[in-house]
Amino acid sequence: MKELRLMKGNDAIAEAAIRCGADGYFGYPITPQSEVLEYLMAQKPYETTGMVVLQAESEVAAINMVYGGASCGKKCMTSSSSPGISLKQEGISYIAGAELPCLIVNVVRGGPGLGTIQPSQGDYFQATKGGGHGDYRLIVLAPASVQEMSDFVSLGFELAFKYRNPAMILSDGVIGQMMEKVELQETKPRWTKEEIVKISPWATTGKTSDRERNIITSLDLDPSRQEKHVMKLDRKYKEIEANEVRFEKINCDDAEYLFVAFGSSARICQKSMDIAREKGIKVGLLRPITLWPFPSKPLFELAGQVKGMLTVEMNLGQMVEDVRLAVDGKVRVEHYGRVGGIIPTPDEIVEVLETKIIGG
Amino acid sequence: MTKEQIIKPENLVYKRTKLLTDKVMHYCPGCGHGTAHRMVMEVVDEMGIQAETIGVAPVGCSVFAYDYMNIDMQEAAHGRAPALATAIKRLMPEKYVFTYQGDGDLAAIGTAETIHACNRGENIVIIFINNGIYGMTGGQMAPTTLPGMKASTCPYGRDPKIMGNPLKITELVATLPGTCFVTRHSVHTPANVRKTKRAIRKGFELSYAKKGVSFIEIVSNCNSGWKMTPVQANKWMEENMFPFYPLGDIKVPAE
Ligand SMILES: Cc1ncc(C[n+]2csc(CCOP(=O)(O)OP(=O)(O)O)c2C)c(N)n1
Ligand code: SF4
Please, is B162 exposed, middle or buried when counting C-beta atoms within 10 Å of its C-beta (0-12, 13-18, 19+)? Predict the structure, then answer.
């Protein structure tokens, strides 16, 4: 039976982790996402599902615990917020290089540096363009509701295992802290040892006599072999781009203008859209759900239809670069953003639409 | 004795370790890493736990340990092996889990991971090769470099006033409640090799019995980094390293 509950976004992530049969959570406290670890510790899943929950000594240790656990074919995850995610970048690059599945949650706060504990979308570049060293990509999911916080845990694991690649939920302090109704998934059992060997034959589960030893590494000093490996990763990323683009279109059929926004900004844009439409401005909204792979194609198609696009982000203009690349000069794209932990209001967004896009 | 007499089974004192792969090791001749690898694999072989053992390799000269050990292994980022091992052991408590780490890996960049895994009392074995220098990157100063000892980043010898003091990380982890067995050995003579092997086996057994971390330091040489012949290096090690890093048990569990 599915269960309805009123939950905080961060708690929903933690509950979804237990229910989707996660094996391990390794984290370190940082506002505004500490509830994930707190909730898990309070639930004691190690007594019910056997899930391991551990407070690590640092984010560096936490992501490397995920690295070790993921190497064993286990469903492992971590969560943090911006400064903590910066520390995790070393491990994320290694995990991507070693082609391991895992889930990383970033409940973004304002930066750079220690910044603020208020919500922000300032980590878009870091999440979608790398952040760690080397040529790699993360599958990045951007929830806009507590429901999606919960749903994207199992989706993130599913995609991570399908492609043997780390997946990230890029959320922010608004969605992490707000309470909403959420329909929870039924609890699935954790994979058995036999299932793990079948699903992940590459995992370091102990060398048995019927197979060669399994080695998990991202190292190859031979340039030609290293190039082959990076090209193999690239083929995988192209496959992900072809198959896994997810987005939502609202009021786009008759739209003359378009908002492009993700996560909590998209929630605010929905209200702006209503205000604008009441004024007779036909504006639609495209909400990327996967920030990587980015919904470039639907944006290119809409570029032939609308007179202008406005990206609304809680940063100084990060996703706008991807939107401009997607529309390839076919239409004017502007950016509106607030930073420092300030959330734009629906009215000010409409005002910007009127002055910068319609009147501009 | 003739060759024929020597190879008779009853006269055989040493044979090739079954759990080492056929790959030719990349270590400099005379380096202790190769012998240390062999000891770990002999223990795994003799205990019959190949299918139950997961090793974690470091960054450093032994970064390719997984090329030589015929078991499932994972490569950690520089210094992070104890974090990986923590998760592996917690998620697969029925396995034997060990890390193999150099002094730069364990006592510099990975100090936090080392101290905290030891303090939490993870049921893992940490094999710590202390050669007092960074071998892989070309002989830079390590946290364990002795006062006065030369390295490429302290070409006039380590001056503690400028470069700080050598870190006795093994004595440090011995003070933590999570370690059960802390001991220091070497592999430069047959007698020492045998003692080291016994210690490794004891470490594997104790950690499997959930007693906590077994921490086995092996004081070793780095002929290349020290710019000595293997024979000179071993002599220098005895005369200079052992007085500062005395061999023997530092912490043993109560019987
Ligand atoms: C994050 C990071 N920093 C630095 C390095 C470069 N590096 C590789 S090995 C090494 C030193 C290893 O020394 P040690 O652990 O003593 O092992 P040894 O080579 O002496 O066996 C360093 C600094 C690295 N690989 N990763
Ligand atoms: S550089 Fe030093 S530690 Fe590395 S293999 Fe050579 S002797 Fe051994």
Answer: exposed
Question: How many angstroms from the chain centroid is the CA of residue A73?
Answer: 21
Q: Is B136 helix (H, G, I), strand (E, B) or coil?
A: coil
Q: Say if strands A24-27 and A76-80 run parallel, antiparallel, or are unpaired.
A: parallel
Complex prediction ipTM: 0.96
Beta strands in B62-146 (DSSP E): 72-75, 96-102, 125-130, 133-134, 140-141
Which residues approach ligand 2 with their CB closer than 6 A?
B 27-28, 31, 33, 61, 131, 135, 222-225
CB contact (8 A) between residue B83 and residue A64: yes
User: pLDDT tens digits, residue range A291-318?
Assistant: 999 999 999 999 999 999 999 999 999 9
Side-chain half-sphere CA neighbours of B123 within 13 A: 16
Give the residue from A131, A212, A121 showing the smallest Cα distance to A166.
A131
* Cα gap A173→A81, rounded to integer Å: 9
pTM of the model: 0.97
Chain A, window 61-80: residues with a beta carbon less than 8 angstroms from a chain B beta carbon: 61-62, 64-69, 71-72, 74, 76
Q: Are B125 and B97 in contact (CB under 8 A)?
A: yes
Test A90 with B52 for CB contact under 8 angstroms. no
Dihedral over Cα of A191, A91, A77, A139: its sign: negative
